[in-house]
Amino acid sequence: VVGHRPLETYEKTKIGEEWSGMNELQAIICDQVEYYVAGHAHVLEDNGSIGSCSVRQLVSGSAGAFPRTVQQPHPGNFAYEESGFLTMDLKDKQVKATFFNDQGVELYQHSQRYQ
User: How far apart are alpha carbons 39 and 14 in whole angstroms?
Assistant: First the structure.
Protein backbone atom coordinates (compact mmCIF):
# COMPACT_ATOMS: atom_id res chain seq x y z
CA VAL A 1 0.00 0.00 0.00
CA VAL A 2 1.29 3.46 -0.87
CA GLY A 3 0.09 6.59 0.92
CA HIS A 4 1.17 10.11 1.69
CA ARG A 5 1.44 10.23 5.48
CA PRO A 6 3.37 7.70 7.54
CA LEU A 7 1.71 5.88 10.41
CA GLU A 8 4.91 6.43 12.39
CA THR A 9 8.00 8.50 11.81
CA TYR A 10 10.95 9.68 13.85
CA GLU A 11 11.47 12.84 11.79
CA LYS A 12 11.59 15.45 14.55
CA THR A 13 8.87 17.79 13.22
CA LYS A 14 6.46 14.89 12.60
CA ILE A 15 6.94 12.62 15.66
CA GLY A 16 3.57 11.74 17.16
CA GLU A 17 1.67 13.50 14.39
CA GLU A 18 -1.90 12.25 14.12
CA TRP A 19 -4.15 12.85 11.14
CA SER A 20 -7.70 12.19 10.00
CA GLY A 21 -8.03 8.59 8.82
CA MET A 22 -4.83 7.39 10.46
CA ASN A 23 -6.48 4.84 12.76
CA GLU A 24 -8.75 3.64 9.97
CA LEU A 25 -5.81 3.10 7.60
CA GLN A 26 -3.87 1.22 10.25
CA ALA A 27 -6.88 -1.02 10.96
CA ILE A 28 -7.24 -1.80 7.25
CA ILE A 29 -3.60 -2.60 6.52
CA CYS A 30 -2.49 -4.02 9.88
CA ASP A 31 -1.58 -7.68 9.37
CA GLN A 32 -3.11 -7.67 5.86
CA VAL A 33 -0.32 -6.19 3.74
CA GLU A 34 3.44 -6.66 3.70
CA TYR A 35 4.50 -3.02 3.20
CA TYR A 36 3.20 0.51 3.63
CA VAL A 37 5.26 3.12 1.73
CA ALA A 38 4.76 6.77 2.70
CA GLY A 39 6.31 10.19 2.22
CA HIS A 40 5.42 13.43 4.08
CA ALA A 41 8.31 13.17 6.58
CA HIS A 42 11.40 14.72 5.00
CA VAL A 43 13.71 11.76 5.67
CA LEU A 44 14.33 8.22 4.48
CA GLU A 45 13.34 5.55 7.00
CA ASP A 46 12.80 1.85 7.49
CA ASN A 47 10.97 1.73 10.79
CA GLY A 48 10.29 -2.00 10.68
CA SER A 49 6.90 -3.17 11.91
CA ILE A 50 4.46 -0.51 13.07
CA GLY A 51 3.12 -0.99 16.59
CA SER A 52 1.58 -4.43 17.02
CA CYS A 53 1.07 -4.82 13.24
CA SER A 54 3.14 -6.97 10.94
CA VAL A 55 3.11 -4.33 8.16
CA ARG A 56 6.58 -2.90 7.50
CA GLN A 57 6.65 0.84 6.87
CA LEU A 58 9.14 2.55 4.59
CA VAL A 59 9.33 6.35 4.34
CA SER A 60 10.72 8.08 1.27
CA GLY A 61 10.03 11.76 1.77
CA SER A 62 13.33 13.51 1.20
CA ALA A 63 13.35 14.04 -2.56
CA GLY A 64 11.29 17.20 -2.97
CA ALA A 65 12.14 19.44 -0.03
CA PHE A 66 14.90 20.15 2.43
CA PRO A 67 15.62 17.08 4.56
CA ARG A 68 15.07 17.23 8.30
CA THR A 69 16.58 15.50 11.31
CA VAL A 70 15.47 12.33 13.06
CA GLN A 71 15.23 11.46 16.71
CA GLN A 72 18.46 9.95 18.03
CA PRO A 73 18.97 7.22 18.72
CA HIS A 74 16.68 6.16 15.88
CA PRO A 75 14.70 3.13 17.09
CA GLY A 76 14.04 1.76 13.59
CA ASN A 77 16.23 -0.17 11.17
CA PHE A 78 17.46 2.76 9.08
CA ALA A 79 17.19 6.56 8.89
CA TYR A 80 18.85 9.09 6.60
CA GLU A 81 18.66 12.87 7.00
CA GLU A 82 19.68 13.94 3.50
CA SER A 83 18.03 13.90 0.07
CA GLY A 84 17.46 10.53 -1.55
CA PHE A 85 14.92 8.04 -2.82
CA LEU A 86 13.59 4.48 -2.48
CA THR A 87 13.20 1.74 -5.06
CA MET A 88 11.31 -1.51 -4.65
CA ASP A 89 11.85 -4.57 -6.79
CA LEU A 90 9.34 -7.43 -6.60
CA LYS A 91 10.42 -10.56 -8.42
CA ASP A 92 10.12 -14.31 -7.90
CA LYS A 93 8.35 -13.92 -4.52
CA GLN A 94 11.14 -11.70 -3.26
CA VAL A 95 10.89 -8.01 -2.41
CA LYS A 96 13.97 -5.81 -2.34
CA ALA A 97 13.66 -2.29 -0.96
CA THR A 98 16.73 -0.11 -1.53
CA PHE A 99 17.35 3.43 -0.32
CA PHE A 100 19.75 5.65 -2.28
CA ASN A 101 21.19 9.10 -1.67
CA ASP A 102 20.65 11.90 -4.20
CA GLN A 103 23.76 10.79 -6.10
CA GLY A 104 22.40 7.26 -6.60
CA VAL A 105 24.68 5.65 -4.03
CA GLU A 106 23.05 2.74 -2.22
CA LEU A 107 22.61 3.44 1.49
CA TYR A 108 20.55 0.54 2.82
CA GLN A 109 18.74 -2.50 1.54
CA HIS A 110 16.05 -4.78 2.94
CA SER A 111 15.15 -8.08 1.26
CA GLN A 112 12.41 -10.49 2.16
CA ARG A 113 10.64 -13.45 0.61
CA TYR A 114 6.85 -13.35 0.55
CA GLN A 115 4.10 -15.84 -0.18
Answer: 11
